[in-house]
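Anyone else keep sequences and structure tokens together like this?

Example one:
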Amino acid sequence: MNTTRLIIVAVGGQGNLLTTKVIGEAALLSEIPVQMSEIHGMAQRGGVVESAVVFGNAKSSIISDGEADVLVGFEPSETLRAINKCNSNTVVITNLSCLPPFTVALGKGVYPDLDKLQELIRSKTKHLIAFNAADLAKQASNILSVNIVLLGALIQTKILPLSADSIKEAIQTKTKKTFVESNLKAFELGFAAAKELD
């Protein structure tokens, strides 16, 4: 089995770790070898959360610079920050709904221009799928489901060795029952958005 390397970056509270658990569960259901690792940073204070997921018979879950096959960013500036993990064959999926850091709110930082951000990512990678996942999460009746919207977009690319059905099954077992219906809808909306943009 070929090795596939996935990086997921987010701001604390956006559901990165839940997304990683759903992916891991789907891999187990599908009997696909998977290794995962996480960097939490200052997650509870709105800091960066990064997950690495490696499918196949790799010896480590560490993804070095230039090794990612796919990068998923729940926040645009975090996607840009992780671009060093990518190479010219990497596919990038990013949310375009911004959560500026407190330094921007204090006037001590400048948030990157979204058009320039996308241009830069496109210049360094194979393909970029960029859309406002927060809008789709609202359509799914759960603004907190941005992560699942982006998971739907990721699965649509068929880069990972996981089926939509295995992810849906994992969503039902790994998310709170009150959110299962909205999460399944969010997944479908993200899947459809990526298909339209592809």
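And example two:
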Amino acid sequence: MEEKYIGVLCSGGDAPGMNAAIRAVTRSAICNGFKVKGIYRGYEGLIAGEVKELTTETVSNTIQRGGTILKTARSKDFMTEAGRQKAYETLKKEKISALIIIGGNGSLSGAYTFANTYADIVCIGLPGTIDNDLYGTDSTIGYDTALNTIVECVDKIRDTATSHDRIFFVEVMGRDAGFLAQNSAIASGAEAAIIPEDRTDADQLEQFINRGFRKTKNSCIVIVSESQKDGGAMHYAERIKKEYPQYEVRVSILGHLQRGGSPSAFDRILASRLGVGAIQALLEGQRNVLIGIHDNEIVYIPFIEAIKGDKPLDKSLIEVLNELSI
């Protein structure tokens, strides 16, 4: 009987906990009688044939490491039919019949397209993105760690803000989703959050200034989701300089600080559970689903729902922040 392998890769931006997920997939697969091959550099590596067998020893001492031992990449070639054909040929050559993809929305969209073209390859997704923007799962791998990293940074920035009576605009990741900004604002005691779901217009900015700069407050911190549309934190800082020149303004863009670091206990446990869940899904005959968590239970979300669904931000969080920032 011909041996068949499970393939695992990371795609898109890295997220803390990806290594814990790779470890869980590998060990759970081996425990259930499968063999595993790791694909390096995501879909790019799949096209190029960068594949190596993984063993229990390969993934030892990785659960605590940030980033991904398999590397990751964003692949333009995989968006083409020719690229996907090359990827398929690699899978057939390596005797991989099931592919587990750890990544975000773009990575799962690629998997969905691929699975619809090559029906003999089973695709399973794991939600690996710090943005927490995948529909159907309460949390994504890396989100909790990134959130804690932001809060740690903002705590330090506040020391400077209060020492100098300044407004600090702190830009965080989450171009299309405000989960990081809104929750880090609450956790760090920030005065406001500017998020895609509740974009601030001129009147709202004025309200925030009037609310945040009363007699009891001479400094404040505003968390801003990055945005190509309006320019993110720099845009709002420029507006303050023009419209409220009496205030001293500073901008801090956290950037890739948010992606790195050792994963939190929550992310290690989540990644481990989801990795085991991926192998269980294969054993149950599932295909083309994202493994998620909802109400602390493992759930299967069809790719089309995960990538098309708009994950709602709990608007009550906005009111919580407003009330606590007086």
